[in-house]
Amino acid sequence: MKNLVAILLTCLGASALISCKKTQNASNPSIIGRWNLISDSTYLPLNGSTRTNKYVGVSTDYYDFEAGGKLSLKEGSISIDTASYSLISDNQIYISHSSNPTPCLCAFDFEVGTFKISALTDRMLTISQGTTTPDGPLGEVIIFSR
Description:
Structural class: mainly beta
Helix content: 10-25%
CATH topology: Lipocalin
Number of helices: 1
Order of helices and strands: HEEEEEEEEE
Distance between the termini: 58 Å
CATH class: Mainly Beta
Largest sheet: 8 strands, antiparallel, barrel
């Protein structure tokens, strides 16, 4: 009987040690790869209020972040394969393309500039940029999935 109790206690102790072991499967999500565009929303001040434009992505819309800093994108009728990006930090990305290599927050070229990476998982990416002007908020939020 003493042997049975000793064996049970040993098994219990071993199972407790094994169950407390850290797993090595922790995910380290990356922005690299092709992302499907879910939506692209812009916010513009207009006559004392905020005008919101929301583009809802279709199955052919994407942003493809390649490892060397090249970015190809298709959003509606816009298709650009000469864009580039660079990670400024873990939560910031700079995007530019040849039609306007200078970052700006203007109504005609929102997809250029420094974006905050608001959310990044293996399956979801949200980037945003914006500021507050005397007339109201000015910015953009782009949501992706894969």
